[in-house]
Write a structure and sequence with these properties.
Layout: H1 5-20, H2 42-57, H3 63-75, H4 80-93, H5 98-113, H6 119-138, H7 142-166, H8 172-179, H9 183-188, H10 192-204, H11 210-222, E1 226-228, E2 231-233, H12 236-245, H13 247-262, H14 268-278, H15 284-292, H16 295-298
Antiparallel strand pairs: 1-2
Helix pairs in contact: 1-14, 1-15, 2-3, 4-5, 5-7, 6-7, 7-8, 8-12, 10-11, 11-12, 13-14, 13-15
């Protein structure tokens, strides 16, 4: 399948920005002149702004915001740089938006891994588990205290994941691992058979092979030594680490975010092109910039 030209052009341009940290040299194509956006009607511009606000911070723009951002886009002739400035502001360059951007990322991950569990329900689970741990402590049940404290900390780690990633404390791989390593995910995918199949599907978009399942089951169900994706594993957490450290995780993340934002299947060629931009750290923000500033997403074509 042919990759839409505006999307690939965004990849090239944004990739240059990320690598150089400054304005890239103009790229000229004799048979593909840079389009003019003077004729894009205001209703389309406003629809784009509304979509960007919802996808990045989880709400529509206020009337004042809509007016201000529309003027900024028009002043920039709706070109890529003006769209990038908008996206970067909402991602936290304007710090007033940062908490909303991080909460929206958390909600997106909950939708992907936890069937859309609300932030409040996750906080409630932490309080409930800590309450059980407190009861165990009062009753002298040390094993119960350790067990429930560990479960509470896992859920809290998922809640804290995006903020920790934003502070460069953990990698995106770790964030996704945390969303698969908590009581809500366990409840949705009860028993080791379902858990293993769910993680492969959620992270890779496929089922495990027979050999992969056998190795994973030994570690997850019995805490027996096994080898998966070239890594030695001994338990559920190490199983998840092996998955998120594998290069197939990168492809799964790119494909999920691409489909989530463009609302269509993503081609193999697009995945390959975008992998060069997200890099080994799986830079989700770089991918969001590519997708949200594309003509396809904006409907400026």
């Amino acid at each position: 399948m042919r990759v839409p030209f505006p999307v690939l052009l965004s990849v090239v341009t944004i990739g240059s920005l990320l690598l150089t940290g400054c304005q890239p040299d103009p790229i000229h194509f004799d048979d593909n002149p840079i389009p003019h956006y003077d004729g894009v009607p205001t209703v389309i511009v406003d629809a784009y702004l509304t979509r960007v606000f919802i996808d990045l911070i989880g709400r529509e723009p206020l009337t004042e915001e809509l007016t201000t951002e529309r003027a900024a886009l028009r002043e920039g002739n709706l070109l890529l740089d003006s769209r990038l400035e908008l996206v970067d502001r909402l991602m936290g360059a304007d710090t007033s938006y940062l908490p909303f951007y991080q909460r929206k990322l958390s909600n997106d991950l909950s939708g992907r891994f936890l069937d859309g569990a609300s932030w409040e329900s996750m906080e409630g689970e932490v309080e409930f588990l800590r309450g059980l741990a407190a009861q165990d402590s009062l009753q002298g049940n040390l094993s119960g205290y350790v067990y429930h404290t560990d479960l509470a900390e896992r859920m809290q780690a998922a809640l804290d994941g995006v903020e920790a990633w934003g502070n460069a404390e953990i990698a995106w791989r770790e964030v996704c691992k945390r969303y698969c390593y908590n009581t809500f995910y366990d409840d949705l995918n009860m028993n080791s058979f379902n858990f293993i199949h769910a993680t492969f599907d959620d992270l890779f978009g496929r089922n495990p092979t027979e050999a992969e399942f056998e190795q994973a089951y030994a570690a997850v169900e019995y805490s027996s030594p096994a080898v998966l994706m070239g890594s030695s594993i001994l338990n559920k957490e190490e199983f998840l680490m092996a998955l998120v450290q594998d290069s197939e995780f990168d492809e799964g993340a790119i494909r999920w975010w691409g489909e989530h934002l463009l609302i269509r299947p993503i081609t193999t060629a697009e995945v390959s092109a975008w992998r060069t931009v997200v890099g080994p750290s799986v830079n989700i923000q770089a991918l969001q910039r590519i997708l949200i500033t594309s003509d396809e997403y904006a409907d400026f074509e």
